[in-house]
Every structure is written in C-alpha cells, then in structure tokens.
Write a structure and sequence with these properties.
CATH architecture of the largest domain: Sandwich
Number of strands: 17
Number of helices: 1
Strand content: over 45%
Structural class: mainly beta
Helix content: under 10%
Shape: globular
Length: about 230
C-alpha cells in the first residue's frame, strides 16, 4: 500500500496505548514491541484512529488474532469507521471465547468507502492507497464485580472550564492528558488526594486521552471530549 499521498494513519489510541506515527515504508509499520494495553474478555473498548486526507474517504479496520493462529480471520474483524483528516472512532468488543495472553492487532486504513472495507482484507494488496500498522494487545480474564465497581467509582466531569477528577477508591497519584496525536499536554504528579482539577479553558474542542494513576498502582484510561 502507498501512504505517501496522506492516505495514512497518524495516531492510534486504545486503552493505555497512544501512538503517533507517520507514513511507514511501503505503507507498513510494525509497532508490536510497544507496551501492550490490557483488554478484558467480554469488555468493550473505544478506539480512536486519526487518518490523513489523501482521499475524501479513509476507512479504518481492525483485526485481532484472538485464536493465535497467525492468521487474521474474518471473525476477528471490526470495522471502525470512515473519515478524512479526522479522528475515526469506534468500539472493539473482546470475545469471551478468546484466550489470555498477547495477541497481534492490525490497524488498517484504506482510501475506500465503508462497503469496501471488508473482513477479508487484512493482508490485501489490491487497495493501492492506505497504510497498515501492527500492535500487540494483552488479553486478560473478564472483569470481576469488584473491578467493575472500581472503574465506576472514578468520576470525571467538565464544568466552568475545569476538568474535575474524583476518586472514591484510592488516592489520585498522578494525572496525564494527551491529545490524539500522542502529545502530552498536561502532567501532574504527587497529587496524593481523592480529587484533582485542571484548567481546560485553553484546550479547545477536541477529544483527549486522560490517564490517571491511583495509589493502588492502577492506571485508569478515559477518553473525554473537551
């Protein structure tokens, strides 16, 4: 595939993974060595892929090799969406039938409309313009009731130009805020409190990735719209 005309993946964000990139050699980049985000069986996760504007339609597809056979099967496919010079967002649901461990994930953008972004094209070369990137994800057992309760006890709100974070499960240790290009735009450490606020007035209208480390050493990742 050819991504030199901006039919390109500029950023991938899924869980704790946020990776900004440029056009890879021959339209391919291998990022499988990056830290793998943990994804629990049975859970659904938002994914954001920033695409270029080489064409009026840039369709994003994702495959995860859940059965570990080294092949991206049609049943391992998720169509994310279509855009152009935009952030394409969707959700990936992890099946309960998969197994625990590291799995290869393929993210692909092609200069085609949604009907042509089909499940059989993980390794296709007939789409001339686009890009493919590979990552690693770490499949984990289903969340228990206690884990779900912990996730629900971390509250985030945005009012009066303040982004407010409140935790009823553990003290907030640090807060990081990234834009969808992977740029760190805010970082605060040693908070040691159940709440934290930051001025959001200068952030503009955009989707941001918020990473919160609590004192129990759990990293909470939230996608927010400012």
């Amino acid at each position: 595939m050819d991504c030199t005309d901006d039919d390109v993946i500029l950023n991938v964000s899924l869980g704790t993974l946020t990776n900004a990139s440029t056009c890879g050699t021959d339209g391919y980049s291998n990022f499988t060595a990056l830290a793998a985000p943990n994804l629990n069986m049975g859970a659904s996760y938002p994914i954001s892929v920033t695409v270029g504007d080489g064409w009026s339609v840039e369709s994003v597809s994702v495959w995860i090799d859940y059965n570990g056979n080294g092949v991206f099967d049609t049943t391992e496919f998720t169509y994310i969406g279509t855009g152009s010079r935009s952030v394409v967002t969707g959700n990936i649901t992890i099946p309960t039938t998969t197994t625990v461990g590291n799995k290869r994930m393929r993210v692909r953008v092609a200069a085609v409309g949604a009907p042509s972004a089909t499940s059989d094209l993980a390794c296709d070369e007939s789409d001339e313009f686009g890009e493919t990137e590979d990552y690693t994800v770490n499949i984990q057992p289903p969340l228990g009731i206690e884990d779900i309760q912990k996730q629900n006890q971390l509250l985030i709100s945005n009012s009066n130009d303040l982004l407010n974070i409140s935790s009823s499960i553990a003290l907030i240790d640090s807060v990081e805020l990234y834009d969808l290009t992977g740029k760190l735009i805010y970082h605060q450490t040693n908070i040691n409190n159940n709440s934290s606020s930051l001025d959001s007035s200068a952030l503009g209208n955009q989707i941001l990735i918020l990473k919160i480390l609590t004192s129990d050493q759990i990293v909470h990742v939230k996608k927010i719209a400012n």
